[in-house]
Design goal:
Keywords: Membrane, Transmembrane, Transmembrane helix. With about 220 residues, this protein is an all-alpha fold. The protein has helices at about 15-25, 40-60, 60-90, 100-125, 130-135, 150-155, 165-180, 190-215. Helix 1 (about 15-25) packs antiparallel against helix 2 (about 40-60) and helix 3 (about 60-90) packs antiparallel against helix 4. The model is unreliable at about 1-5 (pLDDT under 50).
Length: about 220
């Protein structure tokens, strides 16, 4: 008897869309001196690009959907990196108030988590659409705990067709920014290792620079 492949498990896209909208919202917390253009510009660009992205997904235009997803995530990433650079450059001048510095650093730290979670979600194992087609997630850039379970354990947990969702990558990104390591999910791919190094470096730099400025203020 031929064993049929597991049915495709559709992965919701709204958590990833909400994460990028949140990054655009966090941009509103930055003072004008740490932003490129008006404060509302980033969230407007995100919303505008999400319309054709969602349309392409609805119409089954997966290549277009993937390209637009890369585009909007790249724009958000570039904006975050530039704002972080402006924050670093503003520290020696002492032009920003301690309150503005604290708010800006916190916003960029959270944005760093959301941005890299979006990249991990988009890139791991070919992206969400490729993971849907496979049905069961058995190979990827990260070794999630569910991937190490045998079939009997998966069946007992009701996870025979388990596949990582955005929350799994968000948890991974959060751990990287707080513990500077992936904790429960070893990293297998070189590209993922490089990205996690960059994320941890951004997180460490944000916290370290803020602490140094706070000590200087005190």
């Amino acid at each position: 008897m031929t064993t049929l492949p597991p049915p495709a498990r559709l992965e919701p896209r709204w958590p990833a869309m909400l994460a990028l909208l949140a990054v655009g919202g966090l941009r509103l917390a930055l003072p004008e001196s740490l932003s490129v253009g008006p404060a509302w510009m980033l969230i407007t660009v995100v919303v505008v690009l999400m319309v054709p992205t969602a349309w392409a997904r609805q119409k089954g235009l997966n290549t277009l959907n993937r390209v637009l997803g890369y585009l909007v995530t790249s724009i958000v990433t570039a904006d975050m990196v530039w704002s972080l650079w402006l924050l670093v450059a503003a520290l020696p001048s002492h032009k920003e108030s301690p309150k503005d510095l604290l708010r800006s650093a916190a916003a960029l730290w959270i944005a760093n988590i959301l941005v890299f979670a979006s990249w991990y979600w988009r890139l791991d194992a070919g992206g969400p659409h490729a993971r849907e087609l496979r049905g069961v997630h058995t190979d990827g850039a990260f070794l999630f705990p569910q991937m190490t379970l045998d079939q009997q354990a998966k069946r007992a947990m009701g996870e025979e067709t388990w596949s990582p969702g955005f929350v799994d990558y968000l948890f991974l990104a959060f751990n990287t920014s707080t513990a500077f390591s992936p904790t429960d999910s070893p990293v297998l791919s070189r590209w993922a290792k490089m990205m996690m190094m960059v994320q941890a470096l951004i997180s460490f730099a944000t916290v370290a620079l803020l602490a140094a400025r706070a000590v200087n203020i005190l």
